[in-house]
């Protein structure tokens, strides 16, 4: 069977932590929760075929292998599914919620002419729900391509040198911006631009990116072990299992299938503590570590396509500085008081205040129509405690308590954990 690495005892923990820090320098499960809210929640996408026999490795060695992975050239197909228990964010709805997104339809789609159907800020938000098939390719830090395949259409995001193009075949619209060209960026096989303007930075779309986010939480609050082997996309892989040691987390475990030869994560699965199907399951169905053809990254807008040029000023207005490279919370959440993090590890909870120090509008105040109030009530659970009263809005992974006095407590934690945090904060 497969190699197995038991949990380390106290005497071994110092050495293991040193190895883990080579893979991740921060322990912020709230950030993992944010990523989950943005683009994870997947249905199992891949079948394995047998358990290959591989040399034994420890959890520390496997984490270091991931950190040392220098794969810069690959191509393949990724299947990613998201099941947070939310309505679909596809199409026009994605465009309406995404930063910088327009109405979803361009002039040719019956929209108001503002924004672009090819804008990456809107389009990549569609990965937040449902099942999607992606084609990815990378050739070093300056050439990447990601395509989202649909039954009758395709959306492509291409980075080639100084240029970043996005093209939506359904609307025949293209979006163009210039790369920031930051020195030191390296390809990671993600298919996303490593320094492009106007692109959302925190939207992971491949197993490697999802694994890197998860490994930021590998510290004393976490159990990590190698638990067997698998075959993914025809490749032999080790299974790295990451579990919270703390109670109160909605995350049950994260499993990463790591290519035994290259150290590249091939599959990422996140299952909730409450049981049921995976919240996230993303993995390669086909992968090739050879150099992609140069023509893969060539793009010229088709004849008649509407082309929109990226606008830095617009990007900054939506809370992105430096051409969208890094999200700035103080701009993106104007009017909200400073963020406070309660607790540590997987049970961390973000605390902040809504503008004006008031809770959500209610039907009783006359601010919300009765039908809308009924809909809001159906999404949450009424709770009360020393803090007063409020409503907990739930997904399969992320929960948020909004109190009547305008406080918000959110994290990848249970409803009871949110109530306890709110009581302790009073």
Keywords:
outer membrane lipoprotein receptor (LolB), chain A; 10 helices; about 425 residues; disordered N terminus; 2 domains
Kindly report the spatial arrangement of strands forming the biggest sheet. 7-8-9-10-11-1-2-3-4-5-6-12
Question: By CATH's scheme, which homologous superfamily of the largest domain applies?
Answer: Lipoprotein localisation LolA/LolB/LppX
* Structural class label: alpha+beta
- Tally of helical segments: 10
What is the strand tally? Answer: 20
Label the CATH architecture of the largest domain.
Answer: Clam
| CATH class value of the largest domain | Mainly Beta
Distance between the termini: 52 Å
| Biggest sheet architecture | 12 strands, mixed
Domain module count: 2
Low-confidence stretches: 1-49, 89-113, 181-200, 312-336
What does this structure look like?
The protein is of the alpha+beta class and 426 residues long. It has two domains: 10-327, outer membrane lipoprotein receptor (LolB), chain A, CATH 2.50.20.10; 336-425, no CATH class. It has helices at residues 10-21, 29-39, 59-68, 91-97, 120-123, 207-215, 312-317, 329-332, 370-379, 415-425, and strands at residues 73-82, 130-139, 143-149, 154-160, 163-168, 173-178, 222-232, 235-244, 251-259, 265-272, 280-288, 306-309, 320-321, 326-327, 340-342, 349-353, 380-385, 388-394, 399-403, 407-411. The strands form three sheets. Strands 7-8-9-10-11-1-2-3-4-5-6-12 form a twelve-stranded mixed beta sheet, covered by helices on one side. A six-stranded antiparallel beta sheet has the order 15-16-20-19-18-17. Strands 13-14 form a two-stranded antiparallel sheet. A hairpin with a 4-residue loop joins strand 13 (320-321) and strand 14 (326-327). Helix 1 (10-21) packs parallel to helix 3 (59-68).
């Amino acid at each position: 069977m497969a190699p197995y690495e038991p949990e380390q005892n106290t005497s071994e923990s110092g050495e293991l932590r040193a190895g883990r820090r080579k893979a991740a320098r921060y322990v912020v499960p709230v950030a993992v929760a944010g990523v989950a809210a943005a683009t994870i929640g997947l249905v199992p996408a891949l079948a394995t075929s047998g358990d290959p026999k591989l040399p034994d490795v420890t959890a520390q060695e496997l984490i270091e292998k991931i950190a040392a992975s220098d794969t810069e050239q690959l191509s393949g197909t990724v299947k990613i599914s998201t099941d947070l228990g939310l309505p679909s964010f596809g199409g026009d709805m994605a465009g309406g919620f995404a930063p910088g997104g327009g109405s979803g339809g361009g002039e040719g789609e019956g929209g108001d002419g503002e924004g672009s159907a090819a804008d990456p800020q809107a389009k990549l938000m569609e990965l937040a729900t449902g099942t999607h098939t992606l084609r990815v390719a990378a050739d070093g830090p300056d050439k990447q391509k990601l395509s989202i395949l649909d039954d009758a259409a395709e959306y492509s995001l291409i980075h080639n040198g100084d240029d970043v193009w996005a093209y939506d075949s359904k609307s025949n619209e293209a979006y163009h911006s210039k790369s920031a060209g930051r020195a030191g960026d390296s390809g990671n096989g993600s298919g996303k631009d490593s320094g492009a303007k106007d692109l959302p930075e925190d939207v992971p779309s491949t197993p490697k990116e999802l694994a890197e986010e998860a490994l930021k939480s590998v510290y004393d609050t976490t159990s990590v072990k190698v638990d067997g082997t698998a075959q993914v996309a025809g490749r032999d892989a080790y299974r790295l299992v990451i579990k919270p040691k703390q109670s109160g987390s909605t995350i049950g475990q994260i499993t990463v299938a790591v290519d035994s030869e290259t150290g590249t994560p091939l599959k990422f699965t996140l299952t909730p503590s409450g049981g049921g199907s995976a919240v996230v399951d993303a993995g390669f169905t086909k992968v090739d570590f050879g150099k992609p053809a140069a023509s893969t990254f060539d793009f010229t807008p088709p004849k008649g396509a509407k082309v929109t040029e990226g606008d830095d000023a617009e990007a900054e207005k939506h809370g992105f500085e430096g051409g969208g490279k890094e999200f700035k919370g103080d701009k993106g959440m104007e009017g909200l008081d400073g963020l406070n993090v309660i607790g540590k590890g997987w049970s961390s909870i973000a605390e902040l205040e809504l503008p004006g120090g008031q809770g959500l509008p209610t039907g009783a105040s006359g601010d919300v129509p009765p039908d809308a109030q009924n809909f809001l009530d159906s999404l949450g659970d009424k709770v009360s405690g020393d803090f007063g009263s409020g409503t907990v809005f739930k997904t399969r992974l992320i929960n948020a308590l909004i109190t009547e006095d305008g406080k918000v407590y959110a994290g990848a934690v249970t409803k009871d954990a949110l109530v306890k945090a709110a009581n302790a904060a009073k």
